[in-house]
Amino acid sequence: MLPDNLGTFLSVLWEGVPETVIATVGGIALTIVASFVAGLALLSPSRTVRVISRIYVEGLRGTSEVVQLFWLFFALPILVGFQIVPLWGGIIVLGLNHGAYGAEIVRGSVQSVPRAQYEGAIALSLSPAARMRRVILPQAIVEMIPPFNNLFIQLLKSSSLLSFVFVNEVTRQGQAVLVPLFTAQSFTILLLVLLIYLVLALIITAVMRLLERMASTRLGRRPSEQARRKRVTGAV
Amino acid sequence: MSSELSQPTGEATRDWMIVFEGVEKRFGDHVVLSELDFAVRPGEHVTLIGPSGSGKTTILRLLMTLEKVNAGTIHVGGECLSHVRRNDQLVPADEKHCRRVRKKIGMVFQQFNLFPNMTVRGNLIEAPTRVLGLSKAEANARAEELLEMVGLGEKIDAHPTQLSGGQQQRVAIARALAMRPDVLLLDEVTSALDPELVAGVLKLLHDIGETTDITILCVTHEMGFARDFSHRVMMFDGGRVIEDAAPEELFTEPRQQRTRDFLRAVLERH
Amino acid sequence: MDVWNWDFALSILPALLDGLLITLLATVLGSLLAFTLGLVFALLLRAPLGPVRVLVRGFVEFVRSTPLLVQIFFLFYVLPDYGVVLNAITVGVLGLGLHYATYTAEVYRAGIDAVPRGQWEAATALSLPRYRVWTGVVLPQAVPRVLPALGNYVISMFKETPLLIGIGVFDLVGQAREVGGIEFRYVEAYTLAGLFFLLLSYPSALLLRRLERRVGVL
Question: Where is each ABC transmembrane type-1 domain found (chain C) (predicted)?
Fold first, then answer.
């Protein structure tokens, strides 16, 4: 009897996978943009730009992601008079929230590039923009990849919150659709849900490892060196 | 002391490649350079010697605009590096001004500072194409010629990390020359090298000195090189020039006791 | 209808504070569980028995890579099948504690690794018993360095407790949803909830950054 239901479980959960993947990939894309914009703004010579970016970073990190999600879905419509498409709203919250964490990753990695590299670029009269784009960022990006890997997995995990706002992603397919119908088999259903997330997390890690290897090869480093320098990275 | 130093002012700055006037540099409360005046002629090779912390490297960094002066002015090629004239007032130079004057100056660093994200070729053509506006082909031709000159023609597509320290420093020298600078700053360029690699790099610099008319300012602890290479040697101590003479004079008959002590200490170490 | 009604905002404050208490309770208990369980994981990850290490490593990686919300659902729906009937807040604390233990385990590991090799060797040279090496030499050096990282996870957990509304816990956000729903005034409810989180987490984060500067980052 279990195999019969297993097929049902998998097909119902599978229907949620596209939403989870879209939310995650869209969230990651927005995270990358927000991280770089805010992270570089944190390093801006202009105080105003730095302060604005700091407010974004601390504001989004300081309030809970669930609150941000609910605010966007239940409070904002009262203010603006229309409801956002849940999946789009989800991508916005996931992206902006994780972008606030990513901004610190970008700032930290840019600052970790040795000062001598800036000086080498100045001595060649490169413009500030060229210094950043051609010399500093290519080196900083290698440092960013492992912490961004963690951040993207956090984002994938956070995409389960979208079940609260009725996005039919994997968690909702499991908890709100399957569990009420097959309560006795909650164990199997929820284990399958967890395994789907595990597979997606492994895919993210595999892609990031590949990117890391490519980026370190460009810097003439061996990947093992990279792995050794890995350390405890920031919290959720 | 400064009476015997050349102190050009006003119009006379045109005849000099580098002019420091009343330059002061502090880091917090620590005064690194004070009331510093000196000038360097076009094509002249000047070596700065002195104990560590005497401010030699700071002079190169000021010229490269990696540091800003606290007081005084610096002229390079007749143009003020440290200040711009705005409404008849001298105000500290902004980034835009620095960038324009900076193009005349090249620098080679103790730690090479090659860009690890580019190949040797990339390091050599980056600034010529982006800053001087050379075409890729022109920049490549220049890069190949320079690498040939520094004896690394076959390494053009290598990665900086695949090179030895001596090779990296040769690339760094070629990179600086690719900008065709009027002034070349050499900041302890052999200090980070293994002893057996030093001679080759010094020989290369010597050849560059012989075959070009670039004005060269050099900070080094290699006294033998300083003697052969320089037209003038300046001895620094406590942020001031305490002796400024031709190398044969300064190394054989130093006038100051501090210079004698310093030279003796350096010779004993080597 | 005004966008923001101060009277209403004031009137829901007591309910929100009730919710905040639940949030704080869950955070404190969850953290205590995460601190202890994390240490157990960290020590098991150094166990002499290979299979134990592999098993624990696999479990830790699995829990870290999957959503806390689903894990909480898992505990909530599955435990009763095995005769373990707990109230929602207890399930929530278990879920938070277990999930964050996989992070704290990593923090402890890094803290222990950061104790210089020479310290172990010196302890060995003095023939200190094994438990004394840990309690007298390694942990006293490791613990201060891990405090900021542990603190950061407490703040993260604090901000993640609203997940517990999924199993019907009336925490800060649960209360906000409740009182906001009565008159359909969500702006005040969720804005205040967000402010509470910010007011508590931001100063704590600043304090931890200062502590971090004192003891160094792992």
Answer: 20-208
